[in-house]
Amino acid sequence: MNRMVNTSQLSGCASESAEKSERPLIRERGQHEVFCGLTSIIWLHRKMQDAFFLIVGSRTCAHLMQSAAGVMIFSEPRFATAIIDERDLAGMADVHEELDRVVEQLMKRRPDIRMLVLVGSCPSEVIKLDLSRAAERLNRVHAPQRRVISYSGSGIETTFTQGEDNFLAALVQEMRPEEACDKASLIVVGSMADVVEDQMRRIFSGFGIDRVSFLPSRNSEELAEVGPNTAFVLAQPYLGATAQALERRGARWIPALFPLGEEGTTNWLKAIADYFEVDPDRFDSIVEPGRNRARQAVAKYREVLEGKRIFLFPDSQMEPSLARFLQNEAGAEIIEVGSPFLHRHHVSKELAQLPDSVVMSEGQDVDRQIDRCRAANPDLIVCGMGLGNPFEAEGFSTKWSIELVFSPIHGYEQAGDLAELFARPINRRGRLEVDV
């Protein structure tokens, strides 16, 4: 039976859902500490090799990206910032003319660009700059050699992984309608490291599934076709807008756990195999070696993580999947799982794996979450960078959640690496402690 949350102790929070099918949930609305959606460009610009991300923002946006990505002054990354300055804000210059001028300069300097992505920011949205219309205008000038699209990377009321979601949703609009074909196709949705993609392709090939695409693709020319004969599976839990865009194009979603750890990867692959009617014996023969390697790799770190009490702050929206992995495969005890937003439809299988004792929170009131965390006195805190150092100074072990987005952690071969990311700070704290 669902317990009631005392809302008088949770300022700015709504009471949990009364639906019996939902676990108790604290909904919080208050001060939050997350990166903005612009930071997703850090991994997206590496993923799509012929795309260039042009942020239309302020000097603050430029400084954020420079520091977050560690870009040196002489490097040539595939992102930049078209800075909105005082003349633009005061209406002394035509912002659209200025943007056209910057794009023209960029195209001449970087002829390798095949897709230009205009990325909206908080400043561009505050002054009501319509980048979608700007993209249409610029696309008429530069197509078909180059495509121009846009999406919002604004940090207003969002978290940083929503930048990827908005970008992929924009890419869905660029996909061609599928041609008539009797054979179903599969789209794997969500950025994963190239080495992980290659591993997945080999497994799908073993299943006999040969019409497989990944979103985002490694270059803009490889965008998949989409239609009623297309199935898609999510590799990341934060892609709600992208899933809706694919479904509007007629594609069908394959529900599954997310491919983190042996359990999640097996469930994810089994859902795909069942959809494509892969023979069960064939499935077992193909995945069993990977399952064994994953179990053995995680077992090396289970001794460190087993019984450890872990508190997950809301940051990336990957928190329910990470909590399931830590509990079921690493033997940890989960105290609270916070997420900036819960796509209940997409993470329902993950939530079903967590016991009723786990507190779930959606949104953020950071001061109250800090109070709950201190009271719980966990062995490990998974949180954003802004909270990590203060908690470390108080004697807690922490793991930066953003590292879990940058690192290759999906699939069988990366299961041990995923466990090590959580074991490392606990081991470090143990080495630093000195008996008095």
Summarize the structure.
By secondary structure, the protein is of the alpha/beta class.
Shape: globular
According to CATH, what is the class of the largest domain?
Alpha Beta
CATH superfamily of the largest domain: Nitrogenase molybdenum iron protein domain
Helical coverage, percent range: 40-55%
Overall pLDDT score: 88
**Helix-strand category:** alpha/beta
What can you tell me about this protein's structure?
The chain is α/β, with parallel strands linked by helices and 436 residues long. It folds into 3 domains: 37-158, Rossmann fold (3-Layer(aba) Sandwich), CATH 3.40.50; 185-283, Rossmann fold (3-Layer(aba) Sandwich), CATH 3.40.50; 300-432, Rossmann fold. It has 17 helices and 15 strands. A 7-stranded mixed beta sheet has the order 1-2-13-12-11-14-15, sandwiched between helices. The chain has a 4-stranded parallel beta sheet with strand order 4-3-5-6. Strands 8-7-9-10 form a 4-stranded parallel beta sheet, sandwiched between helices. The protein is globular, with a radius of gyration of 23 Å.
Which structural traits does this protein have?
disordered N terminus; seven-stranded mixed beta sheet; Rossmann fold; 15 strands; 3 domains; alpha/beta; 436 residues; four-stranded parallel beta sheet
